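Tokens as discussed.
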């Protein structure tokens, strides 16, 4: 096999809690990660000429060493002393800078693809050990499905997947850096922490209402004052019948969980009218 095409799926956080700020400047977290059917297409092709070629259909996305997918190819090339080169083509569907692991999931696809086309024979555990060197979300993007994420995000425990339901995604154009959000997070008694253990139980019982009731993300306390559209989008989604709505990651993307596709489609139309510059799409959970 000289070429392989992979689906690189987006993720959302059903729950995101920050436990403490570590002495090294990072934060210990407890997060529930859920993969979505929304995905990029990544084609990895082995070529005889040495070197890495990266192409993307979005002009705003760099195609050099600043791209995590390029760095994944470079790491694999060096680690396994590959004498040949690799060509990578990315067709983007996941919004950029959205808190949905768009870069990390493309990176994971490159690791998977190179493992296949170069016949490296690495298992999932070995790929995840390589992936964590590139980014904290990369191991989850390799593992896929649903997971509890702890530590700085690298300690993963598989969980039962979400029940089938429409998931509405809306990303306002304004953004905020992950670094800014974590630096300005106040870990004091006023912070409302999500019920991560309760979310795990709701997933195990496939309780859609219980999952929606336990949605929570401590980073909203920082992002919403900077990007107030996050709160407005949540309000529209819930007003149009969403079981619950939440910001994913450090934002600014908001997702809403719905029982019926018709409800979600109606909410999508209203959001497109009210937020014409937002990226809005309808998807569903992607379970193992």
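Sequence:
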């Amino acid at each position: 096999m000289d070429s392989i095409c992979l689906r690189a799926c987006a993720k959302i956080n059903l729950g995101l809690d920050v436990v403490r700020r570590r002495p090294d400047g990072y934060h210990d977290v407890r997060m529930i990660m859920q993969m979505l059917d929304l995905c990029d297409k990544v084609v990895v092709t082995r070529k005889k000429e040495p070197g890495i070629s990266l192409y993307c259909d979005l002009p705003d996305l760099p195609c050099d060493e600043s791209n995590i997918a390029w760095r994944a190819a470079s790491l694999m090339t060096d680690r396994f002393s590959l004498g040949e080169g690799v060509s990578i083509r990315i067709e983007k569907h996941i919004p950029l800078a959205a808190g949905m692991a768009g870069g990390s999931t493309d990176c994971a696809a490159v690791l998977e693809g190179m493992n296949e086309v170069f016949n490296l024979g690495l298992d999932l555990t070995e790929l995840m050990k390589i992936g964590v060197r590139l980014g904290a979300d990369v191991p989850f993007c390799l593992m896929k499905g649903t997971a509890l994420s702890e530590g700085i995000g690298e300690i993963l425990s598989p969980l039962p997947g979400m029940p089938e339901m429409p998931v509405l995604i809306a990303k306002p154009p304004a953004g905020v850096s992950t670094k800014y959000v974590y630096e300005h997070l106040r870990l004091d008694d006023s912070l409302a922490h999500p019920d991560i253990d309760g979310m795990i139980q709701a997933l195990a019982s496939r309780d859609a209402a219980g999952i929606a009731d336990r949605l929570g993300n401590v980073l909203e306390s920082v992002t919403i004052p900077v990007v107030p559209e996050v709160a407005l989008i949540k309000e529209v989604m819930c007003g149009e019948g969403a079981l619950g709505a939440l910001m994913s990651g450090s934002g600014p993307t908001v997702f809403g969980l719905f029982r019926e596709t018709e409800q979600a489609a109606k909410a999508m139309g209203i959001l497109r009218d009210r937020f014409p510059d937002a990226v809005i799409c309808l998807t569903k959970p992607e379970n193992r």
